[in-house]
């Protein structure tokens, strides 16, 4: 993005992303203009989430850098290029046209619009605004969910858990198993401004679900590609009973007529009984 006052232009990116706790640079350059244009001062302004605007950094060709605001403050801010030369004046004209600002120990409170202003003579003030966002890459894990002991039923139960911790913004979680339902919850993470996303896969217990491989897919803007986590389900399910042996050719006097009671369950059944239905 380039903004101009008369023939003077300031170039800044529309958005900059930085990792929480890390160092981020806010680029700002005064584009080449006529030889008669001189930089009088460079100022950085921060507008936070509440709409409050304050000056956080300034650079003067003779007096050097100034960081008047307590937040982020001198201990966390520095000009990357301006003022790096030695000599009576604090920087060459080329350096003064590069007002890139470095911010260390990025926090959520540092987010917002940052406006870079060049006061020039004789063209006046030119500015450019960039949006700073703080992000955090989450840590991810998936595991089977132990079904609590008790009477088995056909009510849906949680069978797998996928957790994405410490992300900013929150991660997006999906499951590959079409017969299940995801129940997601969002809670604050261990660092201020981060989030933990917890996704429980629930389904109706059955022999078809037991032993299935399912995949938890975690997406986040800090990833180059989605994270895939595989889980093998261990699902207790109530007895599934069928009777075999009848061949549609039973008659009085036939010998060796046998009916089998076929049962599948997890855990294995402890016993069975027959009745005639009378």
From TrEMBL:
Residues 21-116, 138-232 form the Ig-like domain. InterPro entries: CD80_C2-set (IPR013162), Ig-like_dom (IPR007110), Ig-like_dom_sf (IPR036179), Ig-like_fold (IPR013783), Ig_sub (IPR003599), Ig_V-set (IPR013106), Nectin/PVR (IPR052659). It is found in: Membrane. Pfam families: C2-set_2, V-set. Keywords: Disulfide bond, Membrane, Transmembrane, Transmembrane helix. GO terms for molecular function: cell adhesion molecule binding. GO terms for cellular component: apical junction complex; focal adhesion; plasma membrane. GO terms for biological process: acrosome assembly; coreceptor-mediated virion attachment to host cell; homophilic cell adhesion via plasma membrane adhesion molecules; positive regulation of immunoglobulin mediated immune response; positive regulation of mast cell activation; positive regulation of natural killer cell mediated cytotoxicity directed against tumor cell target; positive regulation of T cell receptor signaling pathway. It is a single-pass membrane protein. This is Nectin-2. The gene is NECTIN2.
């Amino acid at each position: 993005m380039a903004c101009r006052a008369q023939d003077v232009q300031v170039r800044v990116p529309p958005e900059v992303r930085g990792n929480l706790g890390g160092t981020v640079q806010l680029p700002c350059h005064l584009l080449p203009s006529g030889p008669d244009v001189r930089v009088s001062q460079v100022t950085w302004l921060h507008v936070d989430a509440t709409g409050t605007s304050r000056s956080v950094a300034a650079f003067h060709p003779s007096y050097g850098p100034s960081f008047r605001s307590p937040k982020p403050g001198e201990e966390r801010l520095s000009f990357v290029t301006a003022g790096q030369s030695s000599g009576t004046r604090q920087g060459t004209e080329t350096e003064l046209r590069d007002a890139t600002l470095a911010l260390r120990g990025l926090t959520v409170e540092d987010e917002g619009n940052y406006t870079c202003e060049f006061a020039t003579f004789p063209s006046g003030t030119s500015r450019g605004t960039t949006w700073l966002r703080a992000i955090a890459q989450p840590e991810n894990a998936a595991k089977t969910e132990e079904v609590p002991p008790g009477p088995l039923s056909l009510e849906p139960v949680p069978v797998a858990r996928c957790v994405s911790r410490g992300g900013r913004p929150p991660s997006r979680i999906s499951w590959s198993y079409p017969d299940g339902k995801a129940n997601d919850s969002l809670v604050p993470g261990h660092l201020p401004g981060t989030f933990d996303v917890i996704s429980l896969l629930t389904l109706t217990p059955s022999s078809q679900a037991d032993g299935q491989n399912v995949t938890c897919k975690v997406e986040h803007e800090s990833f180059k590609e989605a994270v895939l986590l595989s889980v093998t389900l261990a699902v207790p399910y109530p007895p599934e009973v069928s009777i075999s042996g009848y061949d549609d050719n039973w008659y009085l006097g036939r010998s060796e007529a046998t009916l089998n009671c076929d049962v599948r369950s997890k855990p294995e059944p402890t016993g069975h009984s027959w009745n005639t239905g009378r």
